[in-house]
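Lab meeting minutes (informal)
Scribe: AK
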Amino acid sequence: MSKSMKITGRLGLVVLLIAALQIIALAQGRGRGGGPPAGIRGGGPPSGIGVDRGISTSSTRSAGRADTGRSTASDRSNGRSDAGLDRARLQQQNSLEANKVLRDHPGFAASLHTTANSLRSGYQAALATNPNLKFGQYVAATRLAANLGGRNPNITRSAILAGLASGRSIGQTLQDLGLSNQQSKTARDRVDREIKNAKRH
């Protein structure tokens, strides 16, 4: 091969190399400077997605809305969510007091002709309807129904508890169910003695 042909071949390779480099540079330039028109989002994730939108920054990015969510729920429910929490707390508190009585006085239930489990489960069910009901009231209603129900079929534990739930006292409820004031007092005094005696066991 002659010297001139070698030189010509080398020049051809150089030209091809230069052309290839120019093509690559143009392609990169289009990739950087091109893309969709302004205002139109291209491919890839939208800006802001990732760690900056995590839970730790939710309060800042929501201008405090995340922190006020619970209070907003209370406002939107007209306080029903708060009332529900208060109701649950009251039920739990009364239930704990009942358990304390039964624990501190192991013979309490037996002295009243029942069992601790029966008193506990019955009281839990009654609390679901009336969270303000005290354990002593439930026990009194149970004993009054047992003592009076034979002669007064309408005097039941459920009827007495319904009266208490409506805001009536035990004495008022017994009179609503047909007893005189004196009969109501006599019945309540008897039950008070029974409960006091039961707490001695």
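Next up, CB showed the second protein from the same session:
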Amino acid sequence: MAENENGQEKTEEATQKRLEKAREEGEVARSKELTTTLLLLAAVWGLIVLGADLGQALIGLMRFNFTLTREAAFNDNVMLMYLSDTAFAAIKSLLPFFAVVIVAALIGPIALGGFLFSSKALVPKFSRMDPLKGIQRMFSLTSLVELIKSIAKVIVVGATAIIMLMLFEADILALARIPLEPAIAQLLHLVSWSVLAVTASMLFIVAIDVPYQLFDHSKKMKMTLQEVKDEMKDSEGKPEVKGRIRQLQREMAQRRMMEAVPDADVIITNPEHFSVALKYDVDGGGAPLLVAKGVDFMAIKIREVAKHHQVIILQSPPLARAIYFTTEIEEEIPSTLYLAVAQVLAYVFQLRAHTDGKGKKPKPLGDIDVPRDVLYDADGTPIPEENSQ
């Protein structure tokens, strides 16, 4: 089982944050065998496909440069022109081959681990200069795996080369009996396909190395249980900090709530323990809105602010508790309380009209009928129907 520097076992899968941090530092799964094999395959394939045209282009360059007149050979300007033309023609001829090789060189690393450029990976790590850690790496599991891969590559490549020699034995021996130019062409053909076969045999090593690199990277990224807990603390914050944030959020919400009390239409109280403030937009057409609520000290503060701003305060313990326990701030009251609240608002609007000299004084508001399914006691427990009378 993998362990960290403190000797704790790494039993937990890496978190997303851990993987992202490792990626920023250049730690991703890579397979050198995959990159090398793709590069060699692309180079050999490029030579096989483009070799004929490339050879003809090079032959043309040789003829162009070795068929000089005496005057051209002793003319500096002409020789510079020859040099520039030769360089341009050589680059133009080799460009398709270089393009194939460059594409393969880019695809190899990207195929496993994706595209990544990390400046942190370029920073020298002096810990790698530690002799003791160097000795540990020499005798580590990774070094053993690399040794096994090297032996496997020698065996696979050697076996493939022997097989190709056996397959082309007759063709190789026949080269001695044909003219020079056809023999060279035939030899290049045999060598090209033999090298391609030997390079392709490395795919066997790649098929084993890629899953191992993924497994090894996942194993290195594993975390101890304590590391996971520490990361969660760093992400979510320390308990005392989170508590302080929640306290500040409550204080801000309370300030906003108290600022809404002066605009309320009515305050319904318990009369001591509960206070709820309602506002009704006549033109809006919606249900009455709960703009503030509180118990004990907060209920007293709501009443004090309401008195200061001359907001009407009414006592109705069942209705105050029902609104408090069924409705959140800035929410409309539930439909079950429409009738009860409508009685209160009708009385409030009549009383306000009388105060403004626009109507008769309303009769005192009697007991308000609150539906039984929204009756609560002081601690928020629903009152059974048989006890609700």
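CB comment: The mean pLDDT is 81.
No objections, moving on.
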